[in-house]
Write a structure and sequence with these properties.
This protein is an alpha+beta fold and about 230 residues long. About 40% of the residues lie in helices and about 15% in strands. It has one domain: NADH Oxidase (3-Layer(aba) Sandwich), CATH 3.40.109.10. Helix 1 crosses helix 6, helix 2 crosses helix 6 and helix 3 packs antiparallel against helix 7. The longest helix is centred in the last third of the chain and has 20 residues.
Amino acid sequence: MASLPADEAIVTRRSVRAFLPIPVDRATVEELLSLASRAPSGTNIQPWKVRVVAGEARLRLSRAIQAAVDHDGMEKHVREWNYYPERWREPFLGRRRKIGWDLYGLLGIRKGDFEATERQHRRNYDFFDAPVGMIFTLDEDLEIGSWLDLGIFIGSLMIAARGRGLDTCPQAALANAHAVLRAELGIPQSEIIICGMALGYEDKSAPENQLVTERAPASEFATFTGF
């Protein structure tokens, strides 16, 4: 499979929320993980751990998560750590609201339609029907530097996938299902479940995949000295 140039892979990477039922073979996934493992980490400790599920194993995991949410309610399934700030402020609040309503607008979900909102959120637990799902963890005794290392690794993995013509969606929502993930995948309490990822081929006919997110220009977040 021909690879995309690096710039094109970066620019065309998007969070895809509907996938085609086209399988991705294990050799390809292993190649992508090997490429991503070239990501830097502090003193080269390479702290990341990845559980990969596909086929019936992926379906079984999704069914287990959905059954747990059906039984307990979504409010009982929350991640073990804070991803977002406890107090939102601008410009972050405005950006969060915009992408939410842009996505819901494409899906025809109106403000206040909590049932449809929950239904869309729970699509995370099906990995948006992607053929491959991944769960990322870190040993709990590692510090914030290893979280940064993992983020660089995940970013490298998504770009590597896009370079091979595949699509991804990083999924913090899957950390909400940490109890089920531990039981189904044998993840010990000594590891923190950070997030998941869907991997596969984009369903271009799905309206949610028409979402185009905006990025602030470098002039808004960078300062330059000495040029």
